[in-house]
Amino acid sequence: MMMGYKLKTTALAFVAFFCATIAIGQSTRADRILEDFYHQPDKILVAAHRAAHQNFAENSIAALEESIRLEVDIVELDVRMTNDSVLVILHDRTVDRTTNGEGKLSEMTFGEARSLRLLHQDQPTEQVIPTLDEVLPIAKDKILIDIDFKANSKEALVKTVELIKKYGMEHQIIFFLYDYKLAPVLHSICPELIIMPRAYKKKDVNNILDWDYIKIIHVDESFYKERLMKKIVDSNVRVWINALGKYDNMEKEEQNSGYSKLFSKKYINVIQTDRPQELIDYLNVTLN
Question: Where is each GP-PDE domain found (predicted)?
Fold first, then answer.
């Protein structure tokens, strides 16, 4: 009888191990990024600002797909709402800079906005303004999305969270907040979201660290202090800083000049850039 029990226990243990092995084998790329995000603070994550738009229109489906192809960790997308309450991906309040049209998005119907063509290097493309409903399933399981929420209404916030839940992507979304005091409100609405508040000064950082559900803080370089960044990282929270402008421009002028200067600052472990391919190449060379 005891031998039979041991055999049964061994068999169950083998089945459990086999199932666990299969589960590990079926992990998605997004799962692996999340593993790094939460458990590998030395792993520097790359975020593509308005998606990988060097060769494609910014905030376009083509730029999102390029971000995935490049194996960027995080894609930053700007969410706004049309006059008839459709959530779309667009950075500016108006369509003037990024499309072949003119006018405020908030005064346009989705049909009117959709009739426009996105620009790349001031030339019209075949790309149109995408909806949030379109980009989420493309990114699902492949890349994290940093939502730069520019819709600024409760209706838009509720609709955004509903869409995220529709695709079961709560864990895959980094939700950027310009006002960190809204973090508890958003957390109560959807606790699974990764909330990224922006800190404008040291006091903001100290206040944000009081919330144990915050795992990443957007830090302005203007108040970077090594001791403060160490405090953030020691709290098991990531430090997000932008390479946009200054460091990206240096890199454009002279290879490795911008990123080597940026990484002279310690404890930064998420970098947002307009040049994701160059940053990935730099990290692959310097970290290997």
Answer: 44-283
**Catalytic annotation on 91?**
yes
Residue 70 corresponds to which tokens in the numbers above? 């490049």
pTM (predicted TM-score)? 0.90
Q: What angle do helix axes 132-139 and 61-69 make, rounded to 10 degrees?
A: 10
Position 61 in a domain: yes
Contact 51, 77 (CB under 8 A): yes
49, 53, 120, 218: the catalytic one is 49
Is the residue at 106 inside a domain? no
Question: Which candidate in 39, 91, 120, 171 is catalytic?
Answer: 91
CA distance 2 to 86: 65
Instruction: Write the pLDDT tens digit of every residue in 161-193.
Output: 999 999 999 999 999 999 999 999 999 999 999
**Domain for residue 5, yes or no?**
no
The predicted-structure confidence for 37-60, as pLDDT tens digits, reads as follows: 999 999 999 999 999 999 999 999
